[in-house]
Amino acid sequence: MVFYTRRVILIIVLATIPYFFFGERGKADPRPKIAEMNESQKNNLDRIEKYLDGIVSLRAKFVQVSSNGEISNGMFWLKKPGFFKFQYAPPSQILIIGDGTFLSYIDNEIEEIRHMFISSTPLGFLANKKVSLQENMVVSKVENALATLRYTFRKRSEPKGGAITLVFSDKPLKIRKWIVIDAKGIETEVTFSDLETGIDIKNTIFEIPRKFFVNDRDE
């Protein structure tokens, strides 16, 4: 069971990344479209972009639920530009760390680490010093209510690729969750609680454990 949970976390957090940004023919939504937004929806999108752009640091609890039934939770930290961390609660020993350039998937139980560029991940836009949702993405769906704003985005260059939905509460505006669909059609929802912004977060929070440095391990 531990192995299965570890594998699902890796698939959910990392395997969704190339799908969202590059697409996968034959497995994408066959009916992609660009939403026609009214003036109010456009104004709300501008507000969301300004809100995300204004976040310098963030800390929150998260619960991650996939459509295959897997559930996990933990803590999330963000510090611009480029730094973020998902620390999964025990018994999981998974860490996901962005250090400004690379995203590192760390499994302390089996002492394994994998890397990829932050810029190629769905989290890249959130960790950027300047957030610009509309520059490289298009809005394919809008679901706004009195107290909730939901915008679904697709890569502008790959409108048939995967999608990411950002969900916000309103008045005051605050991010609540994101939902990503992976290459196998698994939907993953990450919901935040106890969210704090503008807090002091030390850079040491985002350091990779020393045991994963080659020189240290060879001593």
Strand numbers in spatial order across the main sheet: 6-5-4-3-2-1-11-10-9-8-7
Instruction: Please write the string of helix (H) and strand (E) elements.
Output: HHEEEEEEHHEEEEEH
N→C terminal distance? 34 Å
CATH class: Mainly Beta
CATH topology: outer membrane lipoprotein receptor (LolB), chain A
- Helicity, in percent? 10-25%
Instruction: Extract low-pLDDT stretches.
Output: 14-31, 215-219
Overall number of strands: 11
What's the story with the biggest beta sheet? 11 strands, antiparallel
**Class by SSE composition:** alpha+beta
How many helices? The count is 5
CATH homologous superfamily assignment: Lipoprotein localisation LolA/LolB/LppX
